[in-house]
Design a protein that fits this description.
SH3 type barrels; about 300 residues; single chain; alpha+beta; Arc Repressor Mutant, subunit A; about 40% helix; 5-stranded antiparallel β-sheet
Length: about 300
């Protein structure tokens, strides 16, 4: 009986988005204390049930979470749906209608393995990431298209962990990285969030009206002011040309004798030094001298530590 209720709670949260402890307790005729115990056991089993407080409080499963892809085959989905729909034509049962909606929702997510926008297929995740990135893209894309507010679990570059409600207005693709430009309820202003740094994303059940903004004037420096950006000249060996082209774009690279040169403007942070070092000496800083010195110091530290 216990595990039957746990499974029903999981399926309800997948379908109903968010419920409070009292709502779950009333639905399954158990105590709120039992609800918390079942939720804890679901988390132990690998089902990410989030608990939030305040205006948007309650229990919810992140919309980026899906049941394992082997849970149903496509044929089993179709056969089950056809049978249930045939029955629903003869029987007026709310439970049957709810079951059909749940299966249709799961079928849609199973078949749509990559995030799709028009004629573009997007899979910006790393190799072997089990489509987690694509699920986050799917949620953000749906939020932009349908004006849905979402709750995100966000980890900043500095490691700061926060949960906030955002109203996504547009998706941005820059330097092979996806961002979502959204109104942040916490800061009460627009912010740009890197989708790869969103751990979980869930619809709040609320909608919003898009605010007018001039896309041509949208700040695409993402927090980098004039002092944080620097003009860089790089020398590139042929063996790493293809990788650097994908990083900087082929328009910024020119042949220079037996090698190649790139002149670009980049954010001068720790990530830039690490990126240059990742090419194993095939990319050298020609200018500015300050960046060249940073790379040399970092390389020396690696040698000294080893």
């Amino acid at each position: 009986m216990k595990y039957k209720i746990m499974i029903e709670i999981m399926m309800t949260l997948l379908s109903k988005r968010k419920l409070t402890a009292n709502e779950i307790a009333d639905r399954y005729e158990i105590s709120p204390r039992s609800v918390y115990r079942y939720i804890e056991e679901l988390n132990v089993c690998g089902v990410p049930v989030n608990c939030t407080r305040g205006r948007y409080g309650g229990f919810a499963i992140a919309d980026t979470y899906r049941l394992p892809y082997g849970y149903f085959t496509r044929g089993e989905y179709s056969a089950t749906l056809n049978a249930l729909k045939a029955m629903s034509g003869q029987i007026n049962d709310d439970n049957l209608t709810s079951a059909i909606e749940k299966i249709q929702r799961q079928q849609k997510s199973e078949l749509r393995e990559l995030s799709v926008s028009g004629n573009i297929i997007v899979d910006g995740g790393t190799w072997g990431d089990s489509k987690k990135f694509s699920e986050k893209m799917r949620v953000c894309e749906s939020a932009v298209n349908e004006c849905k507010s979402i709750m995100i679990d966000y980890i900043s570059r500095s490691g700061e962990h926060s949960k906030r409600v955002i109203d996504p207005h547009v998706l941005i693709f820059k330097q092979n990285v996806w961002y979502v430009y959204a109104f942040c309820h916490t800061k009460q202003t627009f912010r740009t969030f890197k989708i790869g740094r969103i751990k979980n994303a869930s619809f709040t059940g609320k909608t919003f009206e898009k605010q007018n903004f001039d896309r041509d004037k949208l700040d695409l420096k993402f927090g980098y002011g004039g002092d944080a950006l620097t003009d860089v000249t790089l020398g590139i060996e042929k063996r790493s040309l293809a990788d650097v082209e994908e990083w900087l774009g082929i328009d910024n690279i020119e042949p220079q004798g037996n090698a190649f040169t790139a002149r670009v403007t980049l954010p001068d942070d720790g990530g830039l030094v690490n990126k240059i070092l990742s090419f194993g000496g095939a990319v050298k800083v020609l200018d500015p001298p300050e960046l060249r010195q940073k790379v040399k110091a970092a390389a020396k530290k690696i040698c000294d530590d080893n």
